[in-house]
Amino acid sequence: MSLLEVNNVNRVLTDNNGAQVNVLQNINFDVQQSEFVSLIGPSGCGKTTLLRLISGLDRPEGGTVKVKDELVTKPDASRGYVFQHGSLFPWETIRDNIAAGLRVTQGRHFDKQLVDRYIALMGLQGFESAFPHQVSGGMAQRAALARSIIMHPELLLLDEPMGALDAFTRADIQNVIYRVWQQTKTTMILVTHDIDEAVYLSQRIIVMTPRPGQIKQIVTNPLPYPRQRTSDDFLKFRQTIQDLLDFGSHDQLVTDSKEKAK
Ligand SMILES: Nc1ncnc2c1ncn2[C@@H]1O[C@H](COP(=O)(O)OP(=O)(O)OP(=O)(O)O)[C@@H](O)[C@H]1O
């Protein structure tokens, strides 16, 4: 049995002019336990919309999302969600942010040693008492990851967690995510615009196209871990994904120009 099953999912939303928009159309895929899968595609193809359906924040107009054969109907602590901007509580220290979920589930006597272990795992020693605005964007994202991972979610949903970071910090957080995935074997689904990131981390890449948001192709990554970003095989596979995305945008450009010509 797959951990996650997305079957014939459609999402219809109303735009500012009151028109119905098919944001997602006929989405089908499975994710296995401990798998790392990326969703990649141009802006507006519905990646975040899909992640929100998997988390249970929203419900699809058609089709089903199931985790362990159970219909997803609302958010659940077994599914962690990390946002682009981490969304740490600004009034709490890094330590308190990381412990936030544990305080809810375990109460005042939560496992403080576990918090220490995650502070160490994320390389945040020395910054435990700092507030989010006093640490770098990369450190804040490490803390946000720790806050989710410490709850041992069976599925971790990562919504462009590196999107707002500079290239150097991005690579650093990618390595943190890779290490955490290797050590915990948590199933992860990553939304990204970044082909290198998807190729570096994922076992399978779901390439999406916009208007309506659809799956163009699901590609298995043949590269063994750990991956070398500059190896010939890496660059070759990267090009495969690039070609799929370029083809999509070419289609889109042709459609756009036809629409303009009308
Ligand atoms: N609440 C909403 N009401 C109406 N339309 C929406 C709503 N939320 C999203 N959309 C539209 O749905 C489409 C998909 O949005 P979504 O944010 O899922 O795309 P995305 O692939 O994650 O984009 P990006 O990479 O820019 O974050 C977009 O065209 C967006 O304008």
Number of domains: 1
Through-space gap between termini: 49 Å
Shape: globular
Please tell me the overall pLDDT.
90
Q: Structural class, please?
A: alpha/beta
The helix-strand sequence is: EEEHEEEHHHHEHEHEEH
For the biggest β-sheet, the strand order reads 6-7-8-3-9-10
Q: Which stretches of 5+ consecutive residues score pLDDT under 50?
A: 250-262
Report Rg.
Answer: 19 Å
Q: How many strand elements? A: 10
As a percent range, the share of helical residues equals 25-40%
What is the highest CATH level, the class? Alpha Beta
What ligand molecules are bound, each kind once? adenosine-5'-triphosphate
Give a structural overview.
β1 and β2 form a beta hairpin. This protein has a single domain (33-59, 73-261), classed as Rossmann fold (3-Layer(aba) Sandwich). With 262 residues, it is of the alpha/beta class. It contains 8 helices and 10 strands. Adenosine-5'-triphosphate is lined by residues 13-15, 21, 23, 41, 43-49, 193, 213. Residues 13-15, 21, 23, 41, 43-49, 193, 213 line the site of adenosine-5'-triphosphate. Residues 4-235 form the ABC transporter domain. GO terms for molecular function: ATP binding; ATP hydrolysis activity. InterPro entries: AAA+_ATPase, ABC_transporter-like_ATP-bd, ABC_transporter-like_CS, ABC_transporter_ATP-bind, P-loop_NTPase.
Short description:
This is ATP-binding cassette domain-containing protein. This protein is an alpha/beta fold and 262 residues long. Helices cover 38% and strands 24% of the residues.
Summarize the topology.
Elements: E1 4-14, E2 20-31, E3 36-40, H1 47-55, E4 62-67, E5 70-71, E6 79-82, H2 94-98, H3 100-106, H4 112-121, H5 137-149, E7 155-159, H6 167-184, E8 187-192, H7 195-201, E9 204-209, E10 214-220, H8 232-261
Parallel strand pairs: 3-8, 3-9, 6-7, 7-8
Antiparallel strand pairs: 1-2, 1-4, 4-5, 9-10
Bound molecules: adenosine-5'-triphosphate.
Adenosine-5'-triphosphate binds next to strand 1, strand 2 and helix 1.
